[in-house]
Amino acid sequence: MSDAPRTSQQPSTPDSHADIPATRLQEVTAELTARWPETRMEPSLVRIEALMDILGQPQRSYPAIHITGTNGKTSTARMIEQLLRHFELRTGRYTSPHVESVTERISLDGEPIDDDLFVHTWHDIKPYVEMVDAAQPVALSFFEIVTAMAYAAFADAPVDVAVVEVGLGGRWDATNVIDGTVAAITPISLDHTHLLGDTTAKIAGEKSGIVKKGALAVVAQQPLDAAEVILRRAVEVDAVVAREGMEFGVVHRDIALGGQLLTLRGISGHEYTDVFIPLHGAHQAQNAALALAAVEGFFGVGAAREQPLDADKVRAAFSGVSSPGRLEVIRSSPTIVLDAAHNPAGARATAEAIGESFGFTRLVGVVSTSGDKDSAGLLEALEPVLSEIVVTQNSTQRATSVDELAETAVEIFGADRVQVEPRLDDAIDAAVTLAEEVGELGGSGVLITGSIITVGEARILLSPR
């Protein structure tokens, strides 16, 4: 950052923030969330570009891998970060939404920034945010500000590379003021259709906006209409494209204890064997292939660099990957699994992975969705793997009302398989009771799903701390 104030893991001098009150993280979070929510999007980069200008363009001080798609973005980002760190690069990772704490969105070297640094970063840029607000008809949104905080924190660290997940869409997303040398696109499906379009082609038009001139686009398998749009964008900006199933992909996959064992083919054509990832589901193997291709591309493998990556470092990186709230087992007896599936495509992947990786004889669902999502499609995808469902409501205003969700659930599951508990804690207790009924011990489980918010609140309730 050229003229902007600096932040760091530790204040540069003992009194560098002496003029800042000892503001609690909760107060800063409340101040930020009082602004436009991240689910509201105006198709403009004017405000965030103005803020980046006044901060001295921090996002241009490091290379970046930019990630978009419908499902799998956060898991892919975490995999990319792990790979880069095992090749001794200092990383900054920006993902959204968070599971438990807003600080999770901004990570340095694989760990969320601490509360103090988050607070200090906000106070560092706040005067400049107010300047932009004063000059614009609409104030900066929550997501725009946290994006700016991430880019500033990465510049001040400083990082060697940023791994940046798009918040919503791509072309008009606040993160798109960064120019990724690599753009990774996870599978695209219908979601946020009221904002991005009602076909996968239209959605791909928005998401492919992160592919910049001369970049490498690594693209997961896509619906045909979406793939055509992405390829057309690549031609327009003279980008190179690597496609799953063509230039890279999953060669072989075996279920293993606690995860899966993979053989991945990179864009170099080299096959990386015996790659263990402690995550469940074919979709996570697909994410791993995409992450590996993105990192190979970042290092120039398959282009200027002829040699593949060090296979031992690749294996070590993937073996340490985690993705909280993604088929995460948080308790046993009965097994309680958290999964952040929030649309039909995500729920189908979850159902397939549950059937493949867990030996449940009885699985009870605890479900709360967001009101702007396809709740019926999500429930239909989960119905084959759930014995019963407990319908509930998380604490946010975005949540689908419990009565509305219950009505939809009864239509899909039948009244005898649906229980209603308005409070999430009561819903979890009810599901555990159902799972523990006589004759089902040892093969019973509970799946808590429907939204990242629901999973985050359940994680707080169920964590041992």
What does this structure look like?
- By secondary structure, the protein is of the alpha/beta class.
- The chain folds into 2 domains: 25-246, 3-Layer(aba) Sandwich (UDP-N-acetylmuramoyl-L-alanine:D-glutamate ligase); 328-462, Protein-Tyrosine Phosphatase, Chain A (Alpha-Beta Complex).
- Helix content is 38%, strand content 17%.
- It has helices at residues 25-33, 46-55, 73-86, 115-135, 142-156, 193-196, 200-207, 224-236, 282-298, 311-319, 344-357, 375-382, 402-413, 424-435, 452-462, and strands spanning 64-68, 91-94, 106-108, 111-112, 161-165, 182-185, 216-219, 240-243, 249-256, 259-265, 271-277, 328-331, 335-338, 362-367, 388-391, 418-420, 444-449.
- The strands form 3 sheets. It has an 8-stranded mixed β-sheet, with helices on both faces.
- Helix 2 crosses helix 4 (115-135), helix 4 (115-135) crosses helix 5 (142-156) and helix 7 packs parallel to helix 8.
- The longest helix has 21 residues, at 115-135.
- The chain is globular and about 60 Å long.
- The two termini are 38 Å apart.
- Mean pLDDT is 91; it is low at 1-22.
List keywords for this structure.
Protein-Tyrosine Phosphatase, Chain A, 2 domains, eight-stranded mixed beta sheet, UDP-N-acetylmuramoyl-L-alanine:D-glutamate ligase, 465 residues, alpha/beta, disordered N terminus, 38% helix
- CATH homologous superfamily grouping of the largest domain: Mur-like, catalytic domain
The percentage of residues in β strands lies in: 15-25%
Widest sheet: strand order?
Answer: 4-3-2-5-1-6-7-8
CATH topology call of the largest domain: UDP-N-acetylmuramoyl-L-alanine:D-glutamate ligase
Per CATH, the class of the largest domain reads Alpha Beta
Instruction: Please tell me the CATH architecture of the largest domain by its name.
Output: 3-Layer(aba) Sandwich
State the separation between the terminal residues, measured CA to CA: 38 Å
How many distinct domains?
2
**Whole-angstrom Rg:** 22 Å
* Backbone structural class: alpha/beta
The count of helical stretches stands at: 15
- Low-confidence spans: 1-22
Shape: globular
Average pLDDT rating: 91
Beta strands, count: 17
Into which percent range does the helicity of residues fall?
25-40%
Largest sheet: 8 strands, mixed
